[in-house]
Specification:
Chain B: This is Thiamine biosynthesis protein ThiS. The structure holds two protein chains of two kinds. Chain A is an alpha/beta fold. Chain A is 39% helix and 17% strand. Chain A is built from nine helices and ten strands. In chain A, helix 1 runs parallel beside helix 9, helix 4 runs parallel beside helix 5 and helix 7 runs parallel beside helix 9. Helix content of chain B is 11%, strand content 36%. The mean pLDDT of chain B is 96. The chains are: A alpha/beta, B mainly beta.
């Protein structure tokens, strides 16, 4: 029997998949397209940079449009409120969406989000009509304050960007889930293996966002398939409600009627 | 006059130039967005945006992102 599930909704838009995928770091544009297809992701992340320093923006944009996915622009690389707000506004004009993955970093070593600047930029952008998807740390209080500002979606990190370490602090992520039951939660950043995505989904996260784990795999297309299956498996595990853990072994086969039963 | 264009000093032959003219002169290709001195300038306002010496113009276009 199929498990009953509601489709994921982000700021009122219903999505067919619980996997968001990045468009960076693939070995070739064709591998990027094939990986996005294999991942079954319904949202693809993109960014903006100076013209002339990367492959032509127009060519890249044509490729992304081919995927027919929803676009989530980001403010990657921003270190202060002014930069992030300006880049978000530029993204809105180019990509024609109010969605913004608000990335505002505070430390160059681990690329950790700056929670204080993040709150300020979120406040400004929401007042300007944006639908903010903040990339944040797994700090409950920061998450609560982002929700108070009007964020319907939060994206706490699993581990620092690009590390592939998985969920470094499952306890914090679980507490955020429990304390914010009505907020859509994604784990963003730090995933490396399908099992990491599965774990995030099993603890009740609504979706995951990843990039390097697929793009930098030996076989990105195969890894994209693996993540798609893991997200579905983890979601089923969450919906099905896991059995309680026990400290002592308990046989699953009945002992009643057991032949040769020896009583101590 | 001199301005900064995408991080590089650019010497312009005139001091009377608006943002649209600069973008055309620099061969801007759609799709793009522009900011001056870290403030977003909507495309609808580029015609009337007169550049000043020392302005820093950023012309951005789509790239891969994670």
């Amino acid at each position: 029997m199929a498990l009953l599930d509601k489709p994921l909704t982000i700021y009122g838009k219903t999505l067919s998949s619980r996997l968001f995928i990045g468009s960076a770091l693939y070995p070739s544009p064709q591998v990027m397209l094939d990986s996005i297809e294999a991942s079954n992701a319904s949202v693809v992340t993109v960014s903006l940079r100076r013209q002339g320093t990367v492959e032509a923006g127009a060519d890249f944009w044509q490729l992304i449009k081919q995927t027919k996915r929803d676009i989530l622009p980001n403010t990657a690389g921003c270190y202060n409120v002014k930069e992030a707000v300006t880049l978000a506004q530029m993204c809105r004009e180019v990509f024609q969406t109010n969605w913004i993955k608000l990335e505002l970093l505070g430390d160059e070593y681990n690329l950790q989000p700056d929670p204080i600047a993040l709150l300020e930029a979120t406040r400004i952008l929401i007042a300007d009509g944006f639908e903010v998807l903040p990339y944040c740390t797994d700090d409950l209080v920061i998450c609560q304050k982002l929700v108070e500002l009007g964020c319907e979606v939060l994206m706490p990190w699993g581990a620092p960007i690009g590390t592939g370490k998985g969920l470094l602090n499952p306890y914090n992520l679980k507490v955020i889930r429990e304390r914010l039951p009505n907020t859509t939660l994604l784990v963003d950043a730090g995933l490396g293996l399908p099992s990491h995505a599965c774990q995030a989904m099993e603890i009740g996260y609504d979706a995951v966002l990843l990039n390097s784990a697929v793009a930098q795999a030996g076989d990105p297309v195969m890894m994209a398939k693996g993540f798609a299956a893991a997200v579905a498996a983890g979601r089923a595990g969450y919906l099905a409600q896991a059995m309680p853990e026990k400290e002592l072994a308990k046989p699953s086969t009945p002992t009643l009627g057991m032949p040769f039963w020896h009583q101590n | 006059m001199n301005i900064i264009f995408n991080g590089q000093v650019l010497t312009l032959a005139t001091s009377e130039i608006n943002l649209t003219q600069l973008l055309q002169q620099q061969g801007a290709q759609e799709p793009f967005a522009v900011a001056v001195n870290q403030t977003f300038v909507p495309r609808s306002q580029c015609d009337g945006y007169q550049l000043q010496a020392g302005d820093s113009v950023e012309l951005l276009s789509p790239i891969q992102g994670g």
